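Tokenise the fold.
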Amino acid sequence: MTAGQGDFALSKVGQIAVNAKDVNRAVAFYRDALKLPFLFQAPGLGFFQCGETWLMLSPPSEPEFDHPSSILYFDVPDIAVAYAALTGRGVAFRDEPHLIHRDPAQSRELWMAFFQDTEGNTHAIRAWKAAS
């Protein structure tokens, strides 16, 4: 082991891949309905900026990867506003915003609502609200 290898640790995600059977349809959904900042398209791929992380839409590269992606949780400042805006753009939510967790130490509550993209992947919006 060379010097410094013992201290090495992963800490930052640079890109997340989400399966898309129809990349053009998925790009339109993420760009037009979710309004994620679109970066570019390459043959069979679509890329978006999510904070410091890139989101890549692509078909599964191997049969064992042909399944829905992990759930992406998008932070929003106001869950009611985000829910209304996304619903207005045709985003199909599985549920309405609902309380997930109360944090009495910080007098706040975590709220979420889950939706599906055009490719069958489930994602969520989430926001902290002042405790009621």
User: Anything to note?
Assistant: The first helix runs from residue 23 to 33. The longest strand covers residues 108-116. Residues 14 and 53 are 5 Å apart (CA to CA). Helices lie at 23-33, 79-88.
